[in-house]
Design a protein that fits this description.
Helices cover 38% and strands 14% of the residues. By secondary structure, it is of the alpha+beta class.
């Protein structure tokens, strides 16, 4: 998303593939083949017949699609697979830490404990020695994703062009997936490894403390943001009353761009690196703001967008109808989502500078694509 906007006033820029990795694919193929042979039965003789990166949504973990063939009990096996790799330190990772085994275990447990659709997880490799970075392997699920580049709100894509009834079906079905995820019982017992490892009296306090730590990491090497620092202060000054109910399993990156859809129904929920234990509002606000940010970008080009889609009041009403839980302080949680997006933009901007795709601006806040809406949130004029 870091190259979505220009300042020429000439309309949306053409889509640009953003560089995510400096990894050598041929070397990865050879090392992955050797690793796979050690995980399969003797004499399987695995071959990777195709391997490619993906231009799919997301700017965090690296994703490789590959086809593998081997023999098992005298039978030829062919599998379409996906590898999720932690980014290399030299590739300006978005997050401070990538716990791939925790992501693998989260997906596995969600598949075991609920009917939320997730890809089948196959193998986890926590060590760097195999291919140079930790990774895990999943089965590939067919489906389509609302595009990030160009944003689906710009038009000329399957979701934008769909009838309003189908758009609403997708919206409600996605909220239903989140409701089913939150319904997993004893979340603290099953997913205790996701509890925020930071000081604070509540899961939300600890989660925001982790965000502060993340910002401190993102601000290093000349990327300090006056706007993000003011916004973090605003969150603390406007802290909402917290529910006494136990935390639920939160997907964390709960936006429609992280869902594979079969038609307009979720076929697989993807991207679990932000999964955590916390209040329900984290996921609902992220879902709403994940759309609003694309609405705001569309508005900069005088595009109509999708103003009737994923409205906060509609989403909240659907969620309450499904779960019986009333959501509170979504404006605060939406602003918190916007702050996290701002930190992502700092890191993806730093990555673009690192790879020579852009120059470091005189004001670091110019890297933050949602700076103007975030300013309005801090002034109390955005969510109204």
């Amino acid at each position: 998303m870091a190259d979505m906007v220009d300042d020429t006033g000439s309309g949306p820029p053409p889509p640009a593939e953003l560089r995510r990795s400096s990894r050598d694919r041929d070397e990865v193929r050879a090392r992955l083949t050797t690793w796979l042979a050690a995980r399969l039965p003797d004499a399987a003789r695995p071959r990777i017949t195709a391997l490619e990166g993906t231009d799919a949504n997301g700017m965090s973990n690296e994703t490789l699609l590959f086809d593998a063939a081997w023999e098992e009990d005298g039978v030829a096996v062919e599998r379409r697979l996906v590898a999720r790799l932690a980014p290399g330190d030299d590739d300006i990772p978005v997050f401070t830490r990538y716990d791939l085994p925790a992501q693998f275990e989260t997906i596995r447990l969600v598949g075991e404990l609920s009917d939320v659709p997730v890809p089948p997880v196959l193998w986890s490799e926590p060590e760097r020695s195999a291919i140079g970075t930790p990774f895990f392997v999943m089965g590939r699920v067919d489906g389509r994703v609302p595009p990030d580049v160009m944003p689906y709100t710009f038009g000329d894509n399957w979701l934008f062009d769909a009838p309003a009834t189908d758009q609403r079906h997708l919206q409600d079905a996605t909220v239903d997936v989140i409701a089913r995820l939150h319904a997993i019982t004893e979340a603290e017992h099953h997913f205790g490894f996701l509890a925020p490892d930071a000081p604070g009296a509540t899961p939300l306090r600890r989660r925001v403390a982790l965000t502060q730590r993340w910002y401190d990491f993102a601000a290093s090497d000349g990327f300090r943001s006056e706007l993000v620092e003011r916004a973090l202060g605003w969150l603390d000054d406007h802290w909402p009353p917290e529910s006494a109910e136990p935390p639920v399993l939160c997907w964390g990156d709960s936006r429609i761009g992280n869902v594979l859809y079969d038609g307009f129904d979720p076929a697989a929920v993807l991207d679990w690196e932000m999964a955590t234990l916390g209040p329900r509002e984290l996921d609902i606000a992220w879902l709403v703001y994940g759309h609003r940010i694309f609405e705001d970008i569309a508005a900069t080009f005088d595009l109509g967008g999708m103003p009737g889609f994923l409205r906060a009041d509609d989403v909240a009403a659907t969620y309450t109808g499904l779960t019986g839980h009333e959501l509170a302080h979504l404006d605060w949680f939406g602003t918190y989502a916007a702050v996290q997006y701002a930190i992502v933009f700092l890191r993806t901007g730093a990555r673009a500078v690192h790879f020579g795709e852009t120059e470091l601006p005189a004001c670091v806040d110019d890297l933050i694509l949602n700076a103007e809406p975030l300013e309005r949130m801090l002034a109390g004029t955005y969510w109204s």
